Amino acid sequence: MNMLKMPWLVLWGALFSASNTLATGVDVGQVQKQTTNWTAIAMFVGFIAITLAITKWAAKKTRTAADFYTAGSGLSGFQNGLAIAGDYMSAASFLGISGLVFASGFDGLIFSIGWLVGWPVLTFLMAERLRNLGRFTFADVAGYRFSQTPIRTFAACGSLVVVLFYMIAQMVGAGQLIKLLFGLDYFVAVISVGGLMMSYVLFGGMTATTWVQIIKAVLLLIGASFMAFAVLWQFHFSPEALFAKAVEVHAKKDAIMAPGGLIKDPVSAVSVGMALMFGTAGLPHILMRFFTVPSAKEARKSVAWATTWIGYFYILTFIIGFGAIVLLTQDPVAYFVEGDLAKGLQGGGNMAAVHLANAVGGNVFLGFISAVAFATILAVVSGLTLSGASAVAHDLYATVIKKGEADSWAELRVSKITTLCLGVIAILLGIAFEKQNVAFMVMLAFAVACSANFPVLFMSVLWKSCTTRGAVTGGFVGLILSVTLTILSPAVWEKALGYPEGSAWFPYASPALFSMTAAFVTIWLVSLTDRSPQAQRERALFDAQQIRSETGLGAGTTTSH
């Protein structure tokens, strides 16, 4: 197979760029089966064999709900930091950001900086509190002093909506990748991915999912490091020389070193920035990771290590993007449509990193990068499934339905049944959405995460006057508004639903500025006007919550919530 013509990777990069603002309307249904790349398949099979062996080992260690959700809270800060980085450093951002840098130069850095700046600010603020107050899910934290039934119901709704839309996009992308690599029919590919994902989660729980994530993160860092090293080696490790050469050969010349090429509308810029910074802090499968370490100290270490790896990774993507500008333009026949620079890269701009992999490492390295991309999908889907299962089993079944009376075995059984159901649903929806544009689903996931989950988590932990009534009302306002505005935005209304250009009811690509603000204002307003006896009790409990969240006194023991 000529991997240089692999259009799925174009989708993958575009998908996550689009998740924030640049929905490109890629139609995944256009992907065609290719001849088989045996190098990529051999590396993929090797990865599967290793991870299944890990799953078998993890299955022996997974006997309780705590083992299943949090790996028994036995991970070290370094291990968990690497796993968090693995969740964060998707192949999507790797391909998408390097593609943006290739197309627009310096301006592509806005996405690297947006994600990176949001990461340490929020996690240094929330990580310790999450570990000290929570047990399995972010609802443990958000609902620490609140009435359990309404806050758990909201948290489960928010988590499941995020998981659902994120998972559909992952399944469609994974199916297309296997279709390309193996030459299998699409539905066979999706069923295969769903089966593998369920195996990881059902038998290995968080332990297996974490190690799959760690392996993927290490492979991705090795691959990206090799590419950046190979690029800089040609310029005697002088970034200045690399940038100067890029300005010389790029069609936009000096403009690639100036900002303003990607986002021109200031409202969109602010809204995109909010989605970039706060979206991840509301993703349930990311928040779960802070419960896998034994103490707040290890949670802080997790953040430190994750920030280190993530920062290093995004620097690499910047070098890779500029390296692609220089090295690929030296051989237009091999990498550009009809050998014409003006017609763009074969497969589109997001193929920059893939083309560069071939340019610096040949077919073997290209196969390696392809296998890493697939490993990323499996790891992310497994994490999503686990967070969805915990929302149903822990928040809805154990706390809302059984009022905290369910034993660990029963909760674990519900978790595994939920995993099976989510796996089947993911497979069915993945098949059903084969020919649909799935970019808007990722947009929905981020929009809901930053507009619903994050405001409730933030206000409940840091604001004394927040009440159950305010948190639940504001959370649902953010949830409903983010979904509605995304559907009415040009990315969905015009590009996905096919209405005429200019007919979108909501003119901006990301609703975060409006929906997240509305959620915060609603929480504040409703909580202030809540004079009920329950609200008074909840406010009185804030001091005890604050002491525990900041000191860890009482953390690590079974909680009453």
From TrEMBL:
<dbReference type="GO" id="GO:0006847">
    <property type="term" value="P:plasma membrane acetate transport"/>
</dbReference>
<dbReference type="GO" id="GO:0005886">
    <property type="term" value="C:plasma membrane"/>
</dbReference>
<feature type="transmembrane region" description="Helical">
    <location>
        <begin position="439"/>
        <end position="463"/>
    </location>
</feature>
<keyword id="KW-0732">Signal</keyword>
<dbReference type="InterPro" id="IPR038377">
    <property type="entry name" value="Na/Glc_symporter_sf"/>
</dbReference>
<feature type="transmembrane region" description="Helical">
    <location>
        <begin position="267"/>
        <end position="291"/>
    </location>
</feature>
<keyword id="KW-0769">Symport</keyword>
<keyword id="KW-0813">Transport</keyword>
<keyword id="KW-0406">Ion transport</keyword>
<dbReference type="GO" id="GO:0015123">
    <property type="term" value="F:acetate transmembrane transporter activity"/>
</dbReference>
<feature type="transmembrane region" description="Helical">
    <location>
        <begin position="303"/>
        <end position="328"/>
    </location>
</feature>
<comment type="similarity">
    <text>Belongs to the sodium:solute symporter (SSF) (TC 2.A.21) family.</text>
</comment>
<keyword id="KW-0812">Transmembrane</keyword>
<keyword id="KW-0915">Sodium</keyword>
<feature type="transmembrane region" description="Helical">
    <location>
        <begin position="364"/>
        <end position="393"/>
    </location>
</feature>
<dbReference type="GO" id="GO:0015293">
    <property type="term" value="F:symporter activity"/>
</dbReference>
<feature type="transmembrane region" description="Helical">
    <location>
        <begin position="414"/>
        <end position="433"/>
    </location>
</feature>
<keyword id="KW-0472">Membrane</keyword>
<dbReference type="InterPro" id="IPR018212">
    <property type="entry name" value="Na/solute_symporter_CS"/>
</dbReference>
<feature type="signal peptide">
    <location>
        <begin position="1"/>
        <end position="23"/>
    </location>
</feature>
<feature type="transmembrane region" description="Helical">
    <location>
        <begin position="470"/>
        <end position="493"/>
    </location>
</feature>
<dbReference type="InterPro" id="IPR050277">
    <property type="entry name" value="Sodium:Solute_Symporter"/>
</dbReference>
<keyword id="KW-0739">Sodium transport</keyword>
<keyword id="KW-1133">Transmembrane helix</keyword>
<feature type="transmembrane region" description="Helical">
    <location>
        <begin position="505"/>
        <end position="529"/>
    </location>
</feature>
<feature type="transmembrane region" description="Helical">
    <location>
        <begin position="80"/>
        <end position="103"/>
    </location>
</feature>
<keyword id="KW-0997">Cell inner membrane</keyword>
<keyword id="KW-1003">Cell membrane</keyword>
<feature type="transmembrane region" description="Helical">
    <location>
        <begin position="39"/>
        <end position="59"/>
    </location>
</feature>
<dbReference type="InterPro" id="IPR001734">
    <property type="entry name" value="Na/solute_symporter"/>
</dbReference>
<feature type="transmembrane region" description="Helical">
    <location>
        <begin position="154"/>
        <end position="174"/>
    </location>
</feature>
<feature type="transmembrane region" description="Helical">
    <location>
        <begin position="186"/>
        <end position="205"/>
    </location>
</feature>
<feature type="transmembrane region" description="Helical">
    <location>
        <begin position="217"/>
        <end position="235"/>
    </location>
</feature>
<dbReference type="GO" id="GO:0006814">
    <property type="term" value="P:sodium ion transport"/>
</dbReference>
<dbReference type="Pfam" id="PF00474">
    <property type="entry name" value="SSF"/>
</dbReference>
<feature type="transmembrane region" description="Helical">
    <location>
        <begin position="109"/>
        <end position="127"/>
    </location>
</feature>
<protein>
    <recommendedName>
        <fullName>Cation/acetate symporter ActP</fullName>
    </recommendedName>
</protein>
